[in-house]
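Renewal narrative, Specific Aim 1. Our central claim is that a sequence can be written position by position from structural information alone. The example that follows is taken directly from our test logs and has not been curated for this report. It begins with the structure tokens describing the chain, in the order in which they were read.
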């Protein structure tokens, strides 16, 4: 098995090099010591979630929430090209976290929650902030589980107008739609820049939303002959694009 990944604060790895002993404590230290039960000599990876990471071995364990990592190598991953962003309409129940989890494991670079007109779920007030926090926590944990050094960004909730502005600046933009005349598998894709995919809610993307997105340069594309749930469509589409752009080569 590959070494487990633990998250450290942004910029915490600045100045770290092979031979350094890095202390891991707090919630991540507790998870490493008390949950994963790592012992001296076992391999471990630390990352800031922004593409920087170190590999090392456990040099010492103290108490229930502290261990020292003897750094053996340092890595820095450049931002992948092209970047893949999925605009995810809010699904019902906990299927939003499922979508974020599987898209993170697949390799999506950013997730944008979208308040589509036909969404049954609505994020408002404290409940909305709590739901957004769950999406971000899910991305963080899925990033560690899938051994990523660069975790996906989960944006603030966007309106249809804000999504249209995002689409207008993309190198390639598409709305996943079962009635799309063009297959996503045959679309002409850029090698750099941002690819932005829109995944609608259970009730579908409204005609008004389709018009707004088309005006921004995003047209309907179909994935295949079957209709996927909103919580799985983004993952399937991202996997297709990661293969086609060579990022899975």
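The sequence written for that structure reads:
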């Amino acid at each position: 098995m590959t070494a487990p990944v633990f998250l450290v604060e942004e910029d915490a790895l600045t100045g770290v090099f092979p031979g350094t002993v890095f202390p891991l404590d707090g919630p991540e230290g507790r998870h490493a010591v008390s949950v994963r039960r790592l012992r001296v000599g076992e391999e471990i990876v630390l990352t800031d979630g922004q593409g920087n990471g170190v590999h090392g071995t456990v040099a010492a364990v103290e108490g229930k929430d502290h261990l020292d990592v003897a750094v053996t190598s340092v890595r820095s991953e450049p931002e992948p090209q092209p970047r893949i962003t999925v605009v995810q309409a809010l699904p019902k129940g906990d299927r939003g976290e499922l979508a974020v989890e599987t898209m993170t494991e697949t390799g999506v670079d950013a997730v944008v929650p979208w308040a589509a007109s036909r969404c049954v779920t609505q994020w408002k007030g404290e409940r909305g902030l709590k739901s957004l926090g769950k999406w971000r926590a899910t991305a963080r944990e899925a990033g560690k589980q899938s051994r990523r050094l660069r975790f996906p960004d989960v944006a603030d909730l966007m309106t249809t107008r804000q999504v249209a502005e995002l689409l207008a600046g993309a190198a390639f933009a598409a709305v996943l739609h079962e009635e799309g005349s063009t297959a996503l598998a045959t679309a002409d894709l850029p090698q750099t820049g941002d690819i932005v995919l829109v995944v609608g809610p259970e009730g579908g993307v409204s005609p008004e939303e389709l018009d707004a997105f088309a005006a921004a340069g995003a047209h309907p594309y179909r994935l295949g002959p079957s209709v996927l749930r909103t919580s799985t469509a983004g993952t399937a589409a991202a996997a297709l694009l990661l293969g086609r752009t060579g990022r899975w080569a």
